[in-house]
Specification:
alpha+beta; Mth169, Chain: A; 3-stranded antiparallel β-sheet; 3 strands; elongated
Length: about 80
């Protein structure tokens, strides 16, 4: 079983890396880009057959280590 966790900054949190990406794209001529936000993707290979239990454990991992709940949100995809 695999878990894909998308971690991204909450709205209103300053994103200097996203601003740098947007600026670089503008400099390259991609003027249609108004703004960019940067996040991270974490993939986990998991053991077990119970998808609901696995998702609950991954949610716990996100809350305790994989994200900063003060400034970040996350979503989990299981497959």
């Amino acid at each position: 079983m695999k878990a894909r966790i998308h971690v991204y900054l909450k709205p209103g949190v300053l994103d200097p890396q996203g601003a740098a990406v947007a600026g670089a794209l503008h400099n390259m001529g991609y003027n249609e880009v108004e703004a960019a936000r940067q996040g991270k993707l974490i993939e986990l290979d998991l053991t077990g057959d119970n998808a609901d239990a696995a998702k609950a454990r991954v949610d716990e991992m996100c809350a305790k280590l994989l994200s900063n709940p003060v400034i970040e949100s996350y979503s989990i995809e299981m497959s």
